[in-house]
Amino acid sequence: MRVIAGKARSLPLKTIEGIDTRPTTDRIKETIFNILQIDIAGCKFLDLFSGSGSIGIEALSRGASKAYFVESNRKAVACIRENLEFTKLIDSASIMECDSMTAINKLAGQELFDIVYMDPPYNLDHEKNVLQALQNSNIIDNYTLIVIEASLHTDFSYLDELGYELVKEKKYKTNKHIFAHKK
């Protein structure tokens, strides 16, 4: 796994051992950032369920002004910190060692994010819970783009009911990305 483009281009990133995280492949990461490319420069990026931090690091490398990394696994947090230091992007990063719901509450009134990216464990409905928490939070607005990585079978038919609009859906062999924003 590596940084695809930007200031830290081609630098390798570490991941934690085991099955607790599923690092996004370089190919899928490149696809995501090709879609996001015009929105990245100068944005404030929230990376929920960060894992190794590769998505937020890619955003910083490509010109995001600030990225928040939210991860509850202590080993993954250490990996994120190590990757940020190695890529020399640590000064534009904030690492929060907590679950996503706690982070949303802690960030209230402090930041307004341009892009929220989440890659929660599959098939546990974390996506819906986070979207419900974000619904009334002041860390997003109608212009915030929310990107969700999920299994192919994850149902997002509730988006409209929660006040979100589906902007785009990109499917791969085993997973998909949903792009949405508040109505």
Automatic annotation (TrEMBL):
Q: Does the keyword field hold Methyltransferase?
A: yes
Q: Keywords on this record?
A: Methyltransferase, Transferase
Q: Name one GO biological process term.
A: rRNA methylation
Keyword Electron transport in the entry? The reply is no
Q: Which SUPFAM superfamilies match?
A: S-adenosyl-L-methionine-dependent methyltransferases
Task: Specify the domain of life of the species encoding this protein.
Answer: Bacteria
State the Gene Ontology terms under molecular function: methyltransferase activity; nucleic acid binding
Q: Which Gene3D superfamilies match?
A: Vaccinia Virus protein VP39 (3.40.50.150)
Q: What is this protein called?
A: 16S rRNA (Guanine966-N2)-methyltransferase
